[in-house]
Amino acid sequence: MDNKHIEVSNSSVGRKDYSSIFSADVIVPVKYKSAATYIIPHKFLQSVTTGSWVEVDFGGKSVNGVIADIKPYSQLQLLSKPGSKPNDRSEYTEGPSKADDSAEPLPEIDYKEITELLPYQPAGKNEISFWLQLAEYYMCTPGEILKAAYPNSYFKQEEVKAKKTPQRFVDEAGTVDELKMNILSGSQEIAYKKIKSEIERKPVLLNGVTGSGKTEIYINLAIETLKQGKQVLFMVPEISLSRQLQMRLKNIFGKRVVTYHSQQTPANKHFIWRLLQYGGAGDSNENIPLVVLGTRSSLFLPYNNLGLIIVDEEHDSSYKQTEPNPRYNGRDAALMLAQLHKAKVILGSATPSLETLYNVYTNKYALVELNETYYGAVSPKITVIDTLKARKTKQMAGNFSQQLINLMKRELESGGQIMLFRNRRSYSPQIECFDCGHSPVCPHCNVHLSYHKATNSLVCHHCEYTKVFNHKCEACGGSNFIYRGIGTEKIEEELSVLFPNVRIARYDADSAKSIKYQQDTLNAFTNGEIKILVGTQMVSKGFDFPHLSMVVVMQAESMVGLEDFRADERAMQLLRQIMGRTGRREKQGKFVIQTSCADHPVFKTFVREFGESTNINGSKFKDYMLHLLNERKEFGFAPFVRMIKLIIRHKNEEKLAIVCADVKNILTENNKSIQYTELTGPFAPVIDKVRGEYIKCFYLKFARNNHLAEGKRELSNVLRGVRGGSTIIFDVDPL
């Protein structure tokens, strides 16, 4: 889709005949099924182009939109818009000249006009194509994509005079010729050369064990791309992960690294937009070779010469947006973006997703393995502690087994560092009245309220509903409570009693709210000042702590037993990622799993596959993942089928049941046109009420070789009329 200008002769404009009428398909940032059609006034004809920002009246409100396409009058489909009022047609009533007897008569025009042509940099053709592709694939509207790409803060910042300019950025950044390649180890050099030979033809999966130096290879690939005058997108799954990586990249690329994520200020975001939009001099459209370090939202930046996309930790579920629309997967969307820009793609992980491994085995991706750690570390020693046995023999001190306490004491005495992982913030996930058994539940969600001791509050971790805990049961008035389960706050408290003279810190969403705290804590732990770090999944991947010698997983049973066909895959990936934090240097690390389900197949398999080798290698993990792939094939799950999850929400539980019955009937009746192979549901998810809405779900499975485009359109069409006060959400490729 090229940026298209309108060519109209001056005589045509002055004559005001029908041949001078043009329409524009405008993407507006609202939930509208497609682009809305507007008439382009004569005063804008010689200035407007595809990609132009315009102000239009939509539903009685003025909104900013982007022109996706321009059509002459002869191609205009004159359809009556519900609720629209005819324009003042006096400008067009003269019709064709008398000499033009063959011209068709002017039909009735029922479209509104574009109100204003806005002075913002036009969106590029690749941007618009990307939005439309995402909208079609993920069954959302182009407007929802536009809203994600250009939030309201963009337009507010356009009115503010920028303190920094692109030209100043270029002057301070220096030249790319000054960048020096990293010296690679022997195994890294082999992997690097293989990547270079494969990446020209297809995306490459770099399956490198933790500590193997994948980042060093990424950096060298990025330097080569910058020296070609192209841009690099370095994607990470979470904001917290970008902190340490940002410092590392800054040391290499200097000011050519810009970071983009949701926690940045609107001013910083806008500056990055301008860097990518305007070029070096502000209006020259010259490309600035730079590295964008960002989360999934960085895909929507206006790249004009993208050469390389790096998707680090490609398996991570944080790449998938779950709320609100667009519900896209950042990893898969990156491949779409790369195709539009003809950019190269490298996916990196120590624990690749089954979808990515499937693409390797079907020859869609190339595989490059890196099975040696940079420092020659040996595999950590794995210990599984059974808390059920420990409690029976009275070998527990709170939530710590005596065996674990002894292991930690020895590690601290030898000068080591310890990280404890528990993927649950708060003091306790649930409290229960000892007298009557009542447990406080969120009034808006079907979940127990978590107790946060530091703030003396009960909090819902789904809708953030909060209330003060007065230590009295709301059912019977009793004051005795049982604390069910443990969170990071409770672990930190117990550790301070067990090890009173040891510096302990906590790193979770509650404690690490400020960037300063994050940086200070990570620096102190890296330098060895903090001896014990308690964290959630925020510290489970991507970080390199050179002195970390022991990692402990608390209440590991929470990883397994979930009603999810991906549960074993995710548990194995998370355990492998956590284990990879320790033993990253010459000294052998220790990995401890404390659980009440020591006999669970996931834990037994993990010990069998990773606890017997003297050197780290990726072959055993790969073998286990192949086993899981075969199971998926046998039972008909992704990646061997395509899946769409229908999520239906309603504030009334009884009405929700009626809507679900209607949906099931419609889906059954339209099976042939939708082309699905299996329908499951309606079923209630584990948490079946969130933010005051009850939830039911359906799964639709499609043949892998089915293109799905037609089926998606038909599915959307047949369910469009089903409302009844409900909300229907399409989740394509659900996680």
What features would you describe in this structure?
It is a single chain. With 735 residues, the chain is an alpha/beta fold. Helices cover 31% and strands 21% of the residues. The protein is built from 21 helices and 30 strands. The chain is globular, with a radius of gyration of 29 Å. The model is unreliable at 9-16, 78-107, 280-285 and 613-618 (pLDDT under 50).
Helices, strands, pairings?
Elements: H1 10-15, E1 22-27, E2 36-40, E3 53-58, E4 61-72, E5 116-117, H2 125-137, H3 142-149, H4 152-158, H5 166-173, H6 186-198, E6 204-208, H7 214-227, E7 231-235, H8 239-253, E8 257-260, H9 266-278, E9 291-294, E10 306-312, H10 330-341, E11 344-349, H11 354-361, E12 366-370, E13 381-386, H12 387-392, E14 396-397, E15 400-401, H13 402-413, E16 417-421, E17 430-433, E18 450-452, E19 457-459, E20 466-468, E21 481-484, H14 488-498, E22 504-507, H15 515-526, E23 532-535, E24 548-553, H16 567-579, E25 590-595, H17 601-610, H18 619-635, E26 641-650, H19 653-669, H20 671-674, E27 678-683, E28 689-690, E29 693-703, H21 709-719, E30 727-732
Brief account:
The chain is α/β, with parallel strands linked by helices. Helix content is 31%, strand content 21%. The protein is globular.
